[in-house]
Amino acid sequence: MTPVITGFECSPDRGRGLARDMRIRWAFEEVGQPYAVRLLSFAEMKQPAHLARHPFGQIPTYEEDDLVLFESGAIILHIAERHAGLLPDTATARARAIGWMFAALNTVEPPILDLQVAMVLESDKPWHGDRLPAVKARIRDRLQQLSDRLGDADWIDGGFSAADLMMVSVLLRLKSSGLVNDYPNLAAYVARGEARPAYRRAFDAQLAVFEAASAGG
Length: 217
Known about the structure:
The protein contains 9 helices and 4 strands, in the order βαβααββαααααα. The chain has 217 residues and is α+β, with helices and mostly antiparallel strands.
């Protein structure tokens, strides 16, 4: 069975490749495996059929035969463990790559998501002006630490892996803020990720969905 993932029928990111199904698309493109996409409206995401796949009513999900997964990190790890191309060959290097996947999701992404919440949902709150600098300071701390670790290397730990796929995906959420540009090696790192043919194929596929939805609306 061809794996089926879920994605937004009309993505709130307006085709910028930030929705989390983009990460799954990119992973499939890197390992050269076919996949299908079930597009959902926001209303359909809260219906019983989708809640059976994802108890929190979000995307993406992954279905293959009797296996159903949710959470982008878990899905990408599953793909990487089944197909060559996203994890190193040696056990120690694989373990480090998986550790960096968790770091991207659990250490680097949370303050970035805080910034998005502050900018989109809290801009009219009386404490917004006080909170925003603190949120950005936490992000800069993480970016500096990541920049120091990356140094002049192309990828986070040896060759490109699922760790870089996840980290680049997370850092792309800062693109509109310009914060990454303060760290030239991180900006170049993100650009290398975006330049990968697999990323471009995934981005174009997700953008085509948004453009079709916009034309139909």
